[in-house]
Amino acid sequence: MSTAHGKLEELKKKVFFTFLLLAVYRMAAQIPVPGVNAAAIASYFAESGGGIFDLINTFSGGAFKRFSVLALGIMPYITTSIIFSLLGEVIPQIQELQEDSEGNKKIQKWTRYATVLLCAVQGWGMAVMFEGFKSAGNIPVIPEPGMLFRITTVITLCAGTMFLLWLGERITEYGLENGISLIIFAGIAVELPAEMMQKLTLYRNGELSGISLLITVAVILAGFFIVTFIERSQRSVPVQYAKKVVHNRVYGGAQSLPIRVDTGGVMPPILASSLLAAPATMANFVSQGHPLKPYLDTVIQSLYPGQLLFNILFALLIVYMTYFYAPIQFKTKKVAEMLQKNNAFVPGVRPGAKTKEYLDFILNRMTFFGALFLVVICILPTIITGANTRFGGTSLLILVSVCVRVMMNVQAFMFSDRYETAYKSRGKYNGQNRRF
User: Fold this and answer.
1) Where would you tag: which of 56, 217, 263, 396 has the fewest CB atoms within 10 A of its CB?
2) What are 13-68's pLDDT values in tens digits?
3) Looking at domain 1-190, which of 1.20.1250.20, 3.90.1170.40, 2.60.40.1180, 1.10.3370.10 is its CATH number?
4) What angle do CA 56, 310, 321 make, to 5 degrees?
5) DSSP 8-state code for residue 68
């Protein structure tokens, strides 16, 4: 069997394994938490419209509105991972652990422990919140509320999130892409056919005009094109490496250091969405008879996706998170030190501190355009098409960025075979006329 054929078979196995584990994830998302009236909870969200819960439901792949065992999704792990990443920027001891292989394993262990703790807190809050939900027929969503139900819910939701984390790690190890990203991608993508059917049903019933339907389709297609273009856009910084001769070959010379326009990626919108959803979710814990309840309800309605206050706060949080998260993704100090150790320099810039300042200047410029892009792509489609849609800007951004990375991984996997075959064909390793 040729090497190329072997690579193709290995790629097929990776694709099959990825789809298999994603299918397991979708089947587990259909299992409700013990003690939940599935018909009553479906009726409640169908009548209430969801509001801010639509945002939470999007990242859980519809598991939240079913109160599934995976209702918390993978977001608690992402939140704790980001917290430890931020702590590494301000606490030198944690930063030293992150740079060491053994220390990084400790950080991963602490992250998992913190994830379980966060899941327990969120699971308890969800149990209390769902105990107060009732459908239109005054049928309670939780027929038998109480301490036993809350403890069972906490254990079930913690187990569901850790099971998702295990699935994500297996996909990362044996699949095509980062498993956490693919799980979020699958949760959003699986809801898109239902969204299309809903739009077509509204159009057939006369509740949605043909112009509105065409505008929605045009915005979606334009969003896919723009996000794809920006995600693959980068600024190439020229780098000059010292030339050296090894085995009659010249290495080094002029190369480039790529810096992505969207350095922060999809994390700034996800973090901003989580921060906006947190106050509205916590406000639901306040009882109906509390004197602050009317004011909190007004705040919750103002924080629904598509409202003016939501858009303003969402834009500000995206800008802040982009400037905060981009330096974590692209560490200019480490890049400058790496260039200096490899006898490389940016033409016209002195190595060391001056190179770091130059890279910081470029990164700040790129981050400005990246933040502007994220604000436009996350808010403008919602304003044009309306808030009651799953084709929001954040969803489009996640879908396209994950697809682009998967395609780049597949291309790199296949190109690695070409490079290996071309290198071996010159007699480096085998053959009768091998060079060494």
Assistant:
1) 217
2) 888 888 898 889 888 888 888 888 877 887 777 766 555 566 677 777 778 878 88
3) 1.10.3370.10
4) 75
5) B
Longest dimension (CA), the chain: 88
Rounded to an integer, what distance in angstroms lies between the CA atom of residue 404 and that of residue 392? 18
Residue-level pLDDT at 188:
82
3-state secondary structure of 123: helix
**Cβ atoms of 7 and 413 closer than 8 Å:** yes
Task: Render pLDDT for 173-187 as a digit per residue (tens, 0 to 9).
Answer: 887 777 888 888 888
Distances (CA, A) of 95 to 102, 222, 282, 330, 362: 13, 41, 33, 15, 24
Please tell me the pTM assigned to this model. 0.77
Distance CA 138, CA 225 (A): 47
276 conformational bin, left if phi > 0, alpha if psi -120 to 50, beta if neither: alpha
Domain boundaries, the chain: 1-190, 191-418
Distance CA 29, CA 66 (A): 8
Q: In this structure, are residues 188 and 63 in contact, taking their beta carbons and an 8 Å threshold?
A: no
Token duo for residue 44:
């409640």
Strands 344-345 and 234-246: antiparallel
What size, in residues, is the chain? Answer: 436
Predicted confidence (pLDDT) per residue in 348-398, tens digit? 888 888 888 989 999 998 999 989 998 888 888 777 776 556 666 777 888
Q: 353: closest CA among 366, 341, 340, 362?
A: 340
Query: Do 1-190 and 191-418 agree at the fold level?
Result: yes
Both structure tokens of 378: 């996350």
Q: Is the pLDDT of residue 400 over 70?
A: yes
CB 127 within 8 A of CB 153: yes
**Consecutive H or E run containing 30:** none
Residue 359 Cα to chain centre, angstroms: 26
- CA pair distance 218, 220, nearest whole angstrom: 5
Q: Given this model, what pLDDT does residue 155 score?
A: 92
Q: Please check whether residue 120 is in contact with residue 158, taking contact to mean a CB–CB distance below 8 angstroms.
A: yes
The superfamily in CATH containing domain 191-418 is SecY subunit domain (1.10.3370.10)
